[in-house]
Amino acid sequence: MSALDITAPAPVSGAARHAARLLRWLENGLGAICALLLAVLLVVVLATVLLRYVFSTGLLGAEDAGIWLHVALIAAGAPLAINSALAMRLDIFVRRLPAAGQTVAEVAADVFSVLTGLVLLFGGATIVAKLGGISPSLGLPEWIRFGFLGAGGALVLLALALSRIAEGRSVRFLLSAIIGATLYLAATRLSFDVSWPPSLVLGIIAAIGLIVAAPLPHAFLAASYIAILFGSSLPEAAIVSSTVTGLSKFLLLAIPFFLLAGGFLTISGVAGQIVRFAAALVGHRRAGLGQTALLTSVLFSGASGSSVANAAFGAATFQPELVKRGYPPAQAGAIIAATSVLDNVIPPSIAFLILAAATNLSVGALLVGGFFAGGVMAVCLAVAIHLTVRENTAQPRADTTERWRSAIGAIPAFGLGVLVVVGIRFGVVTTTEAAALAAIYALLLGIFARLRAASLYEATRQAAVEASAIGLLIGSAAPFAFLLAVDDISGLVSSIATSLGAGALGVLVSINLILLVVGLVLDIGAAILLFSPIFLPIAVAAGIDPIHFGVILVVNLMIGGLTPPVGMLVYVVSGVTRIPAPTLFRAILPYLAALLVSLAILSAWALLF
Q1: Are the C-beta atoms of 214 and 255 separated by less than 8 Å?
Q2: Mean pLDDT highest for which of 80-94, 187-201, 392-406?
Q3: Same structural domain, 432 and 554
Q4: Cα→Cα distances 465→13, 34, 260, 522, 593, Å
Q5: How far is residue 528's CA from residue 534's CA, in Å, rounded to a whole number?
Q6: Distance (Å, rounded) from C-alpha 595 to C-alpha 401?
Q7: Peptide bond before 348: cis, by omega within 30 degrees of 0?
Q8: How many Cα atoms are found within 13 Å in the side-chain-facing hemisphere of 584?
Q9: Residue 503, exposed/middle/buried by CB under 10 A (0-12, 13-18, 19+)?
Q10: Could you give the number of structural domains in the chain?
Q11: pLDDT, tens only, 46-65
């Protein structure tokens, strides 16, 4: 998914110029606030670790403070994703429409965003007005945590209005605002009798939002509210409350910390050391640069934990070099996108963190399973690259001295991976604390590399904004998950899965097929949150180990990052390289087949052990 490529003429009117200036101020201010909140979060978690191991004490209210700051970070960053790839827009359908159809779709997409802003604003205000009680650990009124999202809703509306005025689309935005406000008022005053369960209605409305290229979190939240018209049991305040509750897990704080660690590693040059080490190992082989890109993904995954981060890094670093070596541009981009899948499988993995938060599975056990799964996927991709690439201008074989030198240079990055996995697996620190230690470790590497303060700030701001977008997606899926539970969709899906085959084999095959279809149209984070609580009990009842199944689920849904129409990783590479996404989707087919083979191997392993 990517943001709509709006190529409106430069602002010429006074109103447009003023709106553009105000929008820049707003974005710069919110970016600074997000960076500050992330820095404070890091200090709070590190202080907890320090006090526990040095002074054998703790920091009262540290966990609650971290959760509240995380919600504030998500609220402050929500407006910054509206016009960027972080909005997670599915624009493949809109691009095929004629100009008039694209205009209608743009108006409809903004309707979803307007509704989201209104729901967060007024739903948050309702909770603030009615909620009492004081947080026992922080001594602050409980309504503050919910008020953050209310303020975030107001900021979303402001940023959206300024953006559209600056683009010269004032009339279209006014129409979107009128339609959105009308739907907002109608939802609590009208009702329609339908035989469909509210969760199905919500899913259909959210799908419409995706088709018109509304931001994915906005499609979920607006659909949750519109579903009130069709008998949903979630009123406006409950939508906001469930969204905040979905975010209020200390484990989720690990996501911004891992993103921050990856950002620091990239700008410090340590990521470049990983590339040199990988090239020294496999650069002399056939398709050596392609194999180097693959091995770099394997090694860099232990540092970033984010497939999106690795896709952007690989597209900027390897794609031009691959083309110089004679790779067709589309094939080079396809290799980058396919190998970046490994980052959400090989630890530390943000996908596994989300899965653990949704199912209460052991993070440490999932990370260990991720090592094995990542190895199987890497071998399958290596074979596919070897068979499909005709380039044979490999670099000379590195001698022993050069290999040792490159290995020593890459040690700092390996140290980060060891710190995280060992710390979590042996219970020395929690997952969130390990992620915080990884971030401070990467920061020290950046300081040692004498990076300027401006570079460190920009990496912090970028990680905070990315974490905010991921967090809003996680929260926006919570109302949908609640309605799925109320409507007993798990029972329906269970009966479908079991009807497709009896026993562990039949259940696993049917669930894999369903998840592959889900991955076509749904982002991996949302898919994990919505479907892992449904499928995990089914798999366990069929005798499948829950950790094995969790790993298979993540691998399956990560493959969705390469498949149309959503294909997040393909869109990231497309955005960096300027290669059209449809061209990349065609070029990626051999590597997609290799990943499907790895999924089959992992599924067979789960059945045998």
Answers
A1: no
A2: 187-201
A3: yes
A4: 30, 7, 10, 21, 34
A5: 10
A6: 35
A7: yes
A8: 30
A9: exposed
A10: 2
A11: 998 888 888 877 778 888 89
Long-range (24+ apart) CB contacts under 8 A made by 7-10 are 8/167, 8/168, 8/169, 9/168
User: CA-CA distance, 400 to 397, in Å (whole number)?
Assistant: 10
**Cβ–Cβ under 8 Å, residues 276 and 162:** no
Please, are residues 211 and 316 in contact by the beta-carbon 8 Å criterion?
no
Class of residue 189 by CB neighbours under 10 A (exposed 0-12, middle 13-18, buried 19+): exposed
The answer to whether residue 159 is domain-embedded is yes
Q: Which residue has the tokens 């050069």?
A: 402
* CA gap 479, 74 in Å, rounded: 17
Rg of the chain, C-alpha, whole Å: 24
Residue-wise pLDDT for 514-529, tens only, equals 889 888 767 677 788 7
Query: Distance (Å, rounded) from C-alpha 553 to C-alpha 504?
Result: 15
Question: What whole-number distance in Å separates Cα of residue 468 and Cα of residue 190?
Answer: 34
Nearest to 189 by CA among 153, 142, 236: 236
**Is the domain of 278 the same as that of 234?**
no
Residue in the block written with tokens 């040690």: 411
pLDDT tens-digit profile of 84-136?
766 777 777 888 889 899 999 999 999 999 999 999 999 999 999 988 788 88
Domain that residue 336 falls in = 252-451+487-608
